[in-house]
Design goal:
By secondary structure, the chain is an alpha+beta fold. It folds into three domains: 2-92, no CATH class; 145-235, Roll (Chitinase A, domain 3), CATH 3.10.50; 240-316, no CATH class. It has 14 helices and six strands. It has helices spanning 2-6, 8-18, 22-29, 48-56, 66-89, 96-119, 127-136, 161-170, 174-183, 205-210, 240-270, 280-289, 295-298, 301-316, and strands at 37-41, 44-47, 145-155, 188-196, 216-221, 224-235. The strands form two sheets. A four-stranded antiparallel β-sheet has the order 4-3-6-5. A two-stranded antiparallel ribbon has the order 1-2. A hairpin with a 2-residue loop joins strand 5 and strand 6 (224-235). The chain is extended and about 75 Å long. The protein starts with a helix and ends with a helix.
Length: 320
Amino acid sequence: MQDLKRLYLPLLIVALMVGCGNKKDGAAAGEKGPSQVAAKVNGTELTVHQINYALQRIPNLDKDQSRAASLQVVRNMVDQELLVQKAVEDKLDRDPTVVQSLDAARRQILAEAYMSRKLGTPAEPSDAEVSDYFNKHPELFSNRKVYRLQEISIRAPKDKHDAIRAQMGASKTLNDFGAWLKAENLPAKAAQGVKPAEQLPLEILPKLAQMSDGQAMVVNSPDGLLVIVVVGSRAQPVTLEQAKPAIVRVLQTQVRQKAAKAELDALRAAAKIEYAGEFADAGKKVAAAAAPAEPAAAAGPAADADADADAINKGLSGLK
């Protein structure tokens, strides 16, 4: 029931957004029949529609669990309503921070609702498109590996990056490299783990797949550099049939991202947008992103890498 517990705060936000008008609205309109009421809290009605909405947000809910889940949701919503009523009684719905939070949530929901309705559900890709993606990414599928990695995260300014890369190549062992980092007063943290190909950044995976056990690579990180050492690896290929659901999800995500970008670009072009004061530079960045030289790069694999990796990871997560 962990998923049910995670619903508690999101549902609280929804309840705050719609307010506590159920009791008054129901009494005035007289539209709700007894069968639509799931519970009453100090006279405020919680409806079956609200329960069903909450149930729809629980991922992978088994039909055999729906009855128990619905009862848990009702209990959660009753507790939630008690808190909402107390919050309103204490005038928290007028608190500036709460008002801003509610407005932000409302704006996000409306923006997502518009884009979801505008884009609809992407068509399923053809078998040829699925096969093409499969063949272009052997490191994820036909040559998929499970890696045992050692990672060294190094905090360092950019002017030290070249020296670190050179020292990594010159060091005979990791201990030698670690001693050099310590002598240079460069903070570093080491970690080890086992990760399948789909859980690794897609931009480094092709190179990683070609590395032998014991080899290392250095990549940029937000705070400095990350050294990745392949301690060991084992082949664990995936067939086209096994990979198809994940590939379909990736291709649909790419189509949706492209359509979303096109829609947003069209809305920007048709609108009058003015950035003021200290935010004037934000407008320059948007204009630069819309320049003719940029769209190809923005729509390329690097821009979609995180979404692609997430889709593939979910699709292959059941493999051992």
